[in-house]
Amino acid sequence: RQTGTVETDAEKHDVEYLTPISIGTPPQNLIVDFDTGSSDLWVFSTEMAAKDIKGQAVYDPNNSSTSEKLQGSTWQITYGDGSSSSGDVYLDTVTIGNLTVPNQAVEAATKVSDEFTDDANNDGLLGLGFSSINTVQPTPQNTFFDNIKNNLDAPLFTADLKHGAPGSYNFGYIDPAAYVGNISWTPVDSSQGFWSFTSPGYAVGTEAMRNHSISGIADTGTTLLLLPKSVVKAYYEEIQGAQYDSNQGGYVFPCSPTPPDFVFGVSDGIVTVPGDMVSYAPVDSANQDCFGGIQSDTGIGFSIFGDVALKTSFVVFDAGGLQLGWGAKN
Ligand SMILES: O=C(NNC1=NCCC1)c1ccc(Br)cc1
Q1: In a designed cystine with 30, which of 1, 107, 123, 314 is the match (CB 3.0 to 4.6 A)?
Q2: Of 38, 39, 199, 279, which residue is the catalytic one?
């Protein structure tokens, strides 16, 4: 971000994290949401109806000398928040930083739901989940990471998301300058296509850790930290005036004083979500109530360690060791 530009409300509350990529020849530059909770690389495209495009950059396969249509292939995806998109598929060159995959499946959207049309800043998604849940039919395609991981020094990537500031994704190496102390490692179960792990327990504020396993996924594409109802209830019981607000669809509480920290275990270590990151966003300019960054995972089947949890740490997604590493940020 250049100095002097105004921070948008979305940026103020870390709603999503967007990263530049290049597609095709000559390179077409788009800015997309890197999403460890899904495994499709799809982009706004010239194949969409004009009414569904509101400010986004689009991929034009006809303007790329290296694009090749994957005849007969289609895709359709629906995300956990109900948003969705669909389209057809091209193979083309994709570059992220100094890394290039020559024949990456680029899923060109023909249709997107309103959530995507109304998000002018986001030109698509780049899935960093496991390729087993890629939605391309009849033949599922590999993610960018799967296509490049054997050419990296190590088959891993790291996410260093920040609060109200640009973060970084690195591929193939762990930057020792990005974290302090030891990284806590925990095994990943990739059988559902996600970066799933089980936290052994949690604590509210300075209380003792409670032995309560929490199984969930590390999902950069989900904004909040979605946990079991019992855990969420125990957390908000510690905040004066906190209550479930059906209008807002979640727990709301007075923005001040700062709520207690939320701590969860990762193997032998702990991750602390500072209280000031839990008061996610004011519900309206009038009263001083805040929508909580910790909400219930009811109906999903497991918990989601979204950006509210991930931005506290330097996180290593290690496909070689099938493990997640959580380090304290430098
Ligand atoms: O959709 C998911 N993650 N990514 C994104 N959300 C919104 C746009 C991108 C998601 C993944 C797994 C589970 Br379980 C719940 C939600």
Answers
A1: 123
A2: 199
